[in-house]
Amino acid sequence: MKKIIINIGRQFGSGGKSVANALGERLGITVYDQELISRAAEKSGISPELFSHSDEKKRSFNLSSIFDGMLNDGELFRIQSETIKDIASSGSAIFVGRASNYVLRDMDCLDVFIHAPQEVRVKRVMERQGISADEAASLMEKKDTSRAEYYNFFTFGHWGKASDYDLCIDSSILGVEGTADFIIDFCRRTGMVE
Amino acid sequence: MAAPTILGTEKIGKLLKMYAVPGIIAQTAASLYNMVDSIFIGHIPEVGSYAISGLAVTFPLMNLSVALGTLVGVGSMTMMSVLLGQKNYEQAGKLLSNVLSLNIIIGGIFTLFTLTFLDPILRFFGASDNTLPFARDYMIIILLGNIITHLYFGFNGVIRAAGNPKLAMGLTLFTVISNAILDPVFIYVLGMGIKGAAIATVLCQTMALSYSFRYLSDKKNLLHFPRPIFQLNSRIAKQSMTVGLGPFLMNSASCIVALFINQQLGRYGGDLAIGSYGIINRITFMFIMIVMGLTQGLQPIAGYNFGARQYSRVREVFILTTKWATLVTTLAFVVSEFLPGPAVSLFTNDPELTENAIHGIRYMNMLIAPVGFCIVVGNFFQCLGMVKTSIFLSLSRQLIFLVPMIYLLPLWLGQDGVWVSFPISDAVSVLFCLFFIIRLFRKFKKLNDGDDPSILGGAL
């Protein structure tokens, strides 16, 4: 079987993670996100808390930048990248977030960005977290800002900009399952999936 | 990924040696450089004591220049190491070109501004009619070479990060040695005085910079300058400056402290007192910089093992570093209290200045022995990610308690008030360090290797 590697970037509340899971199920491939963090931690001997602490957060200015220890965000990103590369080189995988499209830029992969209109995302976040519309909107704003800062700082690219990806899809049009179908269809045409 | 595995397994003593020695060499080289300059300047016939006071007057301005260097330097180095870690040489090259342009712009603005208002600035920093000509002569050359200085330090860091630390070290040693050779030639043989010292400094850095420039232009190296060589990307500029803002503020704080010290010494003791501080500062920093080098070894070892939850190893490296650091600062204490004569005579043969400096160093370094411990503690908290504690401890010794005392004590004690501010501030800071470290180690005791560190409470 041919190796399949799909990187999924996503707006908060766009259902990107669900699309990734649907893809994983249909293609029989492991989806890496939180699991990825613990694997990275295990391998380097560093406790998972430190990773979740810096998980897709890159504070542009914080006091710790005054001093620069070894376990800075850059070092953690490097260890995480090594892990992503290791996983990708050993077989098929679907990665969610963590700038994996950049980390694996020298490999043959499909880079997808999942987004959705504001109202749809607000609704999904409200249901998932059980919070009000205002709270959902501000949470989305916060999460997306920190994802963008993280991605842009480490990759020098532009988070969510079409030219950084192969495919950008509004998940609200076809729904989670339909979007996953569409991506698989796309992979067939590129020859990644037989 | 070679480094992390040995950080968790190799003997602590061996690791510390491995990681600290390069840091110590680099820091010692930097302080030797300044010392050599001061020694030659202090011995300029007839005017040596005014010249060395003139040099001391420029300290705050020099600190400010260093601070501006870190504004661009630290941020771009952070980005550079991320890019090199990802083997993204194309983007790293672009960053290199941005570092070049940014340094030229910021350094140029600083030079223009300070040269225009040089006399009032130096007067404000404590220059008198006697010392102003020397401070001015020195500073004009240094400021004209300001861009070169920043680029030299910036590219030296890049070369180190790009996997050639030996070349970076070699260039540093080259500037120290060539400066020591050129200093006497320009100062005495060509009779240029204090101006000669500044010319030697800029010339040596120009030579080192040309070499690193050639190295970074070589297309055989993975990291090299792209075309066009001057690039300015607003995003890179913004990013590197936001990261560099913290170090910039810390260094600006040291500029302000140097300014207060000079002003107060000038007011209560005149040129002689400022000159004394210049000498004492050089002697003391020699030792402090060695401790700084030691902490560069502490950081990766403590940071890694804390992350790996090996608390016994964290404790071990802390204790070992503290021992060495305290030994170094105890040596500083011995020199200051029992051998101040020979130490001061390195810098001047003026009897009045010698007497004043000996008097000053005895007071100022009375409690320097435990300062090594304090510096290690401050760094240690930083390694564990308890940054607020770390910043508080570092500021408490150098700013929070020092500045008010330097202002108040001379009201009763005159010049001595400035000198005794240092041991008092050191004492307060030792108490704080003890308080924080004992509290931390009590909590450490409850942790076995492998336990969740969350009981430490993160930021403390």
Structure description:
- The complex is a heterodimer of chains A (194) and B (460).
- Chain A is an alpha/beta fold.
- Chain A has a single domain (5-190), classed as 3-Layer(aba) Sandwich (Rossmann fold).
- Helices cover 55% and strands 11% of the residues of chain A.
- A five-stranded parallel sheet of chain A has the order 2-3-1-4-5, sandwiched between helices.
- In chain A, helix 2 (34-44) crosses helix 4 (73-90).
- Chain A is globular.
- The relative contact order of chain A is 0.21.
- Mean pLDDT of chain A is 85; it is low at 59-70.
- With 460 residues, chain B is an all-alpha fold.
- Helix content of chain B is 83%, strand content 0%.
- Chain B contains 19 helices and no strands.
Instruction: Count the DSSP helices of chain B.
Output: 19
Separation of the first and last Cα atoms of chain A: 8 Å
Q: Provide the succession of SSEs of chain A.
A: EHEHHHEHEHHEH
Strand content of chain B: under 5%
Global structural class of chain B: mainly alpha
User: What's the level 1 CATH class of chain A?
Assistant: Alpha Beta
Residues in helices of chain B, as a percent range: over 70%
CATH fold title of chain A: Rossmann fold
Question: How many strand elements of chain A?
Answer: 5
Number of strands of chain B: 0
How are the strands ordered across the major sheet of chain A? 2-3-1-4-5
Calculate the terminal CA-CA distance of chain B, rounded to whole Å. Answer: 31 Å
Mean of residue pLDDT values of chain B: 90
Can you summarize the main beta sheet of chain A?
5 strands, parallel
CATH architecture of chain A: 3-Layer(aba) Sandwich
Roughly how many Å is the radius of gyration of chain B? Answer: 23 Å
Could you say which overall geometry of chain A the principal axes of the C-alpha atoms support? globular
List the uncertain runs of chain A: 59-70
Number of domains of chain A: 1
Structural class of chain A: alpha/beta
User: What is the chain-wise order of helices and strands of chain B?
Assistant: HHHHHHHHHHHHHHHHHHH
